[in-house]
Amino acid sequence: MYFSLVLKTVFMYFFIIFVYRLMGKKEVGELSIVDLIVSILIAELVALSIETDNKSILVSVIPILVLVGVQILVSYITLKNEKIRDIIDGKPTVIIKNGKLNFTEMSKLRYSLDDLLTQLRLNGIKSIDKVKYAVLENNGNLSVFSDNDDYPLPLILDGVVDYNVLSEIKKDYNWLIKILKNKSLNLDEVFYAFYTNGKVFIITKNQLL
To answer: Which pTM value belongs to this model?
Structure first.
């Protein structure tokens, strides 16, 4: 009985390491909400397998592999489809813009002022008026840009234009396309383009390793 328990525990230890490498996650802080749900389900299945002596270990291994397969499929789909990605993973939200709090977005996210102040302190910021931009990321972390920082605004992500950013910088689609044409680029050739300090920086798909 005890020997079987030890074998199950050791097997599950290495199996879970393999599973998380397969999912492509390196740190707990990188997990999205969906990843966290999968992690909780995997933990429950592992506990069930170790605690139950009269059932085959495959009772847990097979559902775990199914979960991983579904997660890899969902990750691939969200990588290719921005709308589905926004639904499943959500979008980063600007909480502070030009030193002003966005209470509307904070209310939607149920993100309190205490939460904000706590994360600002963790970023070494003592006062809100020292912040130019603060962005609440999908994983719950707060990215903070001080007055001396140039906050990069993403214009294009994997060939998809962010019209909200264009509106924010008071530019239009034609302006963006003209910049691409001056660089002899098509929209579908751009992997990432961002606007900062009055300039547009572009990374093409050909530049990727």
So the answer is: 0.58
Element housing 135 (H / E): strand 131-136
Q: Which residues contact 126 (CB under 8 A, 6 or more apart)?
A: 120
Alpha-carbon radius of gyration of the chain: 22
Range 27-61 burial, b when 16+ CB lie within 10 A, else e = eeeebbebbeebbeebeebbeebbeeeeeebeebb
Token reading at 14: 């290495």
- Beta-sheet pairing, 142-146 with 153-157: unpaired
Helix (H/G/I), strand (E/B), else coil: 209: coil
In contact, 153 and 165? CB cutoff 8 Å = yes
pLDDT tens-digit series, residues 43-91 = 888 888 777 767 777 878 888 888 888 888 888 887 777 777 777 777 7
Tell me phi and psi for residue 142, to 5 degrees.
-105, 120
- Distance, in Å, from the CA atom of 106 to the CA atom of 116, rounded to the nearest integer, reads 9
**Residue 120, burial from CB neighbour count under 10 angstroms (0-12, 13-18, 19+):** buried
